[in-house]
Amino acid sequence: DLQKDSQLKKMMENNLGALFINQSWIDLYWTNGVPKGFEEWLSNSQYQKLIYVRENQKPLLLDSPGL
C-alpha cells in the first residue's frame, strides 16, 4: 500500500509532501521541491506510471472555503 510505504512517508514528513489518490492516478505534491532520494524511490516503485509529481506546488483543496 502506497500510503504505508515507510520510505515515501519519511520523505513526505521531512519535505512537506501531500499525496492525493484519484480514480486512475496519484498526485504527489512537493511544496519545497523534490527531496533527495525520491527519483530513485520512484524508479523502483510499482506506482511509477500512476504518479504525477507536482513540484513546488501546493495542493488545491476543493472542500475548503472559496478562494
From TrEMBL:
This is Uncharacterized protein. It comes from gut metagenome. The lineage of its organism: unclassified sequences, metagenomes, organismal metagenomes.
